[in-house]
UniProtKB/TrEMBL annotation:
Keyword Glycosyltransferase found: yes
Keyword entries, A-Z: Carboxypeptidase, Cell membrane, Cell shape, Cell wall biogenesis/degradation, Glycosyltransferase, Hydrolase, Membrane, Multifunctional enzyme, Peptidoglycan synthesis, Protease, Transferase, Transmembrane, Transmembrane helix
Protein name: 1A family penicillin-binding protein
SUPFAM superfamilies from the UniProt entry: beta-lactamase/transpeptidase-like (SSF56601), Lysozyme-like (SSF53955)
Native organism: Falsibacillus pallidus
A GO biological process held by the record: regulation of cell shape
Chemical reaction(s) catalysed: [GlcNAc-(1->4)-Mur2Ac(oyl-L-Ala-gamma-D-Glu-L-Lys-D-Ala-D-Ala)](n)-di-trans,octa-cis-undecaprenyl diphosphate + beta-D-GlcNAc-(1->4)-Mur2Ac(oyl-L-Ala-gamma-D-Glu-L-Lys-D-Ala-D-Ala)-di-trans,octa-cis-undecaprenyl diphosphate = [GlcNAc-(1->4)-Mur2Ac(oyl-L-Ala-gamma-D-Glu-L-Lys-D-Ala-D-Ala)](n+1)-di-trans,octa-cis-undecaprenyl diphosphate + di-trans,octa-cis-undecaprenyl diphosphate + H(+); Preferential cleavage: (Ac)2-L-Lys-D-Ala-|-D-Ala. Also transpeptidation of peptidyl-alanyl moieties that are N-acyl substituents of D-alanine
Domain Glycosyl transferase family: 61-236
Record-annotated membrane-spanning stretches: 17-40
Subcellular compartments: Cell membrane
Length: 690
């Protein structure tokens, strides 16, 4: 009895120690679990986003370019993935995916047993959740720290997201070989179709690749890929996801592989693509990394048809032996949307964007802005000035200035403002500029959206300060739309990878120009194509008159080293600059004609299927026929009469006297003038006129 008691005491002692130690470790384990849960709670839901290719769309929804970092990644919703592919993936990768909570313990035990028997690692046990966590966040180093991190990420995923969300993320991030990440990129690469359109056979083929892209890609080993496909189809049939007949049919399906991505980096409109990227930075406020890897959906203003026309016209018009460069932009005048853009003749040779980046002297294309200011200050299309060699004298601080007309050709007499614009008379332009005040043109240019620095000098009327092509096309678009404020726009909307709109272009446009004055100016700008305004020289649009089939308004411009043509129809504005990058003079006649020929060929082709529209007069203008020589009301004896528009109350009242058969006689006065004269005369004059 005495012997038993010490044994009992020792046993009780051991049991107590065991219970104490067990309780201690249980408490530690519980504290560990509690700490882990608190950590997971504090960390919150991990982001599901990954580096993805950003896509750029034209205005008709066509993909025109994508960010290119050597990898293709596109995010699609689960309902945009073929059910065959989701079922095949779950069947082969994690058949208990919808039952477990991130870890498949039975599978882990089975894998350990298989590894022990083989004395090597022969079977994996990672669930889809674990693989997703590894793909998203973790490095590839094989350490215990990585495995613990992987487990924590897995728990965070399972606690914060639904199974479908995890599956969607997994399918959008796994690697399918050949630079394709995610099912959408893989579908496009292997089969040139969207993931939602995959057949059962194609889906089973793709589902087998992630296990080892360097082994099971059909482009690496078609035999192994087919064997893997067969395994997956059999597994799907055994899990009653498909019938055995469906599996056999899918196995015998003839698969057509493409082996290339249908979307390439900015093959269409590369200069436009670069301009969009710049606008994403400056206007939308995105950084380079987000643009390249954010999986953005960027909806642009590009019109593919117009872009192709522009590129073809430039290529066909400019000689292959010429070093002349080109800057071109087309714009919808209603909203400022840039529909086509060319920054140079060969993007591969030079990515410098001459339509957006280059500052070139606009020459006489500045004159419409000047004459709008003049019309606002009381000038009319019939206002006359002398066109003759003139030297302007200033104070001691500024030297004398003598502008010259083309070929030193002058009227040596009075010409109207309308004719001065149509013939591009430089003397009249400088006189108008100085009469209005040296600051007026600069201030007016700002109203027209020009942001480049403009020198306050007499020669500014002749476009001697550098501007961008897109600036000038935008200014002319404001004239075309009746004076509403717009700005060159390349992007209409930007969405993130989940489809959330993070930027949308403002569609409101304030009225900043007077509608009536704007229309009067538009009609004056039609004059460059109207031979009735021929005078001491021909109108500047003479060389392309035989190619015109609809009403246009515009203005050409030349300097020693720059050649411009900008113009518009009611539906479309386009502008062309041509010149040499090094600023050397343009001497060849053919080189001087490129801008106009590119412009008219583009406009005629781009508007070929559009209705012919005239510029509609506003309510506050009146149209009268005037003699183009002097701007006075035309008579039957005038050899030429041109319908000209004026702001109501500004139209001429005096008739032309130059061409009357008997200059002493006066033509019949208009009825309104007769009535006014009758009111002024005493009543008795009606009865006793003597």
């Amino acid at each position: 009895m005495e012997v038993v008691r010490p044994r009992l005491k020792r046993t009780i002692k051991y049991v107590r120690a065991f219970l104490f130690i067990g309780g201690f470790f249980t408490i530690l384990f519980m504290l560990f679990l509690a700490g882990m849960l608190i950590y997971i709670k504090i960390q919150g839901p991990p982001p599901l986003s990954v580096q993805q290719s950003s896509l750029m769309y034209a205005n008709d929804g066509t993909i025109i370019g994508e960010s290119n970092n050597g990898q293709k990644r596109y995010w699609v919703d689960l309902d945009e993935i073929s059910p065959y592919l989701t079922e095949a993936t779950v069947a082969i990768e994690d058949r208990n995916f919808y039952e477990h909570h991130g870890f498949d313990y039975k599978r882990i035990a089975g894998a350990l047993l298989a590894d022990v028997k083989a004395m090597a690692k022969v079977e994996g046990a990672s669930t889809i959740s674990q693989q997703y966590a590894k793909n998203l966040y973790l490095t590839r180093d094989k350490t215990w720290n990585r495995k613990i991190s992987e487990a924590l990420y897995t728990i965070r995923l399972e606690w914060n997201y639904s199974k479908n969300q995890i599956l969607e993320g997994y399918l959008n991030t796994i690697y399918y070989g050949h630079g394709a990440y995610g099912v959408e990129a893989a579908s496009r690469y292997y089969f040139n179709k969207e993931a939602k359109d995959l057949s059962l056979g194609e889906a089973a083929m793709l589902a087998g690749i992630p296990k080892g892209p360097s082994i099971y890609s059909p482009f690496v080993s078609y035999e192994r890929a087919k064997e893997r496909q067969k395994t997956i189809l059999s597994e799907m049939a055994s899990q009653h996801l498909i019938s055995k007949k469906q599996a056999q049919t899918a196995m015998s399906e003839k698969l057509v592989f493409t082996g290339k991505f249908p979307i390439q980096h900015a093959e269409i409109a590369p200069y436009f693509y670069d301009a969009v990227k710049q606008e994403l930075k400056n206007k939308v406020g995105l950084d380079e990394r987000t643009i390249e890897f954010g999986g953005l959906r960027i909806y642009t203003t590009l019109d593919i048809k117009q872009q192709k026309i522009a590129e073809e016209v430039v290529k066909e018009t400019v000689s292959d032996h010429s070093d002349i460069q080109v800057g071109f932009a087309a714009m919808n005048p209603k909203n400022g949307y840039v529909t086509a853009l060319i920054g140079g003749r060969d993007y591969v040779k030079s990515s410098y964007n001459r339509a957006v980046q280059a500052l070139r002297q606009p020459g006489s294309t500045m004159k419409p802005i000047l004459y709008y200011a003049a019309l606002e200050k009381g000038f009319t299309p019939s206002t006359t000035m002398r066109s003759e060699m003139t030297t302007f004298h200033f104070d001691e601080k500024r030297p004398d200035y003598t502008p010259h007309n083309f070929n030193n050709n002058y009227a040596n007499g009075e010409i109207t403002l309308a004719q001065a614009l149509a013939l591009s008379d430089n003397v009249v332009a400088v006189k108008t500029h100085l009469f209005l005040g040296i600051d007026t043109l600069v201030n007016e240019a700002r109203q027209f959206g020009l942001t480049s620095k403009l020198a306050r000098v007499p020669s500014l009327a002749l476009g001697t300060s550098g501007v961008h092509v897109t600036e000038m096309v935008n200014a002319y678009s404001m004239i075309a739309n009746g004076g509403k404020k717009i700005e060159p726009t390349f992007i209409t909307k930007v969405e993130d990878y989940e489809g959330n709109v993070i930027y949308e272009n403002d569609s409101s446009h304030d009225q900043v120009l007077d509608k009536d004055t704007d229309f009067v100016l538009t009609h004056m700008m039609e004059g460059m194509f109207d031979p009735k305004l021929n005078g001491y020289a021909s109108v500047t649009g003479t060389t392309i008159l035989n190619k015109i089939t609809r009403p246009y308004a515009g203005k050409s411009g030349t300097t020693d080293s720059d050649s411009w043509m900008i113009g518009f129809a009611p539906q479309l504005t386009a502008g062309v600059w041509t010149g040499y990058d090094n600023g050397q003079p343009i001497t060849l006649t053919a080189d001087k004609l490129y801008a106009k020929n590119i412009w008219i060929r583009f406009m005629e082709s781009a508007l070929k299927d559009e209705p012919i529209k005239a510029f509609k007069p506003t309510k506050g203008v009146v149209g009268v026929k005037v003699d183009p020589e002097n701007g006075k009301l035309a008579t039957e004896d005038c050899p030429r009469a041109r319908l000209t528009y004026f702001k109501e109350g500004k139209e001429p009242t005096e008739y032309c006297q130059l061409h009357l058969s008997n200059p002493i006689e006066k033509p019949d006065e208009p009825q309104a003038e007769k009535k006014a004269q009758e009111k002024k005369e005493p009543w008795y004059k009606k009865i006793f006129p003597w």
